[in-house]
């Protein structure tokens, strides 16, 4: 999957993946991380997610990375922030009120960019990537995060043959296979959500689960 795919989706405003409300699993399970106020939280492939603002409202310093500048500018505009724009070689940075979004390629991030991060919220990154990219994503993520970082991960699981992603199906077994060499893995919940997502049922899905994990890097 090439960068142009996502850039064109934002240009055409084909953003059905964007949620207008805060993700209910975030508000329900974030307390499991037991983070102190002021902790630095990172959100990969963040789009213009409302979850960024929610995390900031919990007292965290929030950073994210997003490929599309359309999404980054929309986040600050729609949330009433006058963001400072700082151009750079790898990333264009926009920031306001302890919120910092980096516009650029996730795979260009380095350990220095995430040196103070203590937690990651991944609702839209792993499931946005096809199978052949997911191992590369995980290896890069764990390679640039500090030890003991916690990751709250939300993943879709459905018969991949029944629907073309994204979002892609990522089973519990695949999550464990991807992260078992790097993290302690705890399944917090598994929810059957097909009835609440009729648009996915209309696309032919016979089963749709959301699995919520808490990962702690070693």
Protein described:
The protein is α/β, with parallel strands linked by helices and 218 residues long. It has helices spanning 3-11, 24-29, 50-57, 69-78, 131-144, 172-179, 198-202, and strands at 40-44, 61-66, 84-86, 92-96, 99-103, 117-122, 150-157, 183-192, 209-217. The protein has one domain (3-15, 23-217): Vaccinia Virus protein VP39 (Rossmann fold, 3-Layer(aba) Sandwich). It is 28% helix and 26% strand. A 9-stranded mixed β-sheet has the order 3-4-5-2-1-6-7-9-8, with helices on both faces. The radius of gyration is 17 Å and the shape is globular. It starts with a helix and ends with a strand.
In short:
This protein has helices spanning 3-11, 24-29, 50-57, 69-78, 131-144, 172-179, 198-202; strands at 40-44, 61-66, 84-86, 92-96, 99-103, 117-122, 150-157, 183-192, 209-217. With 218 residues, it is an alpha/beta fold.
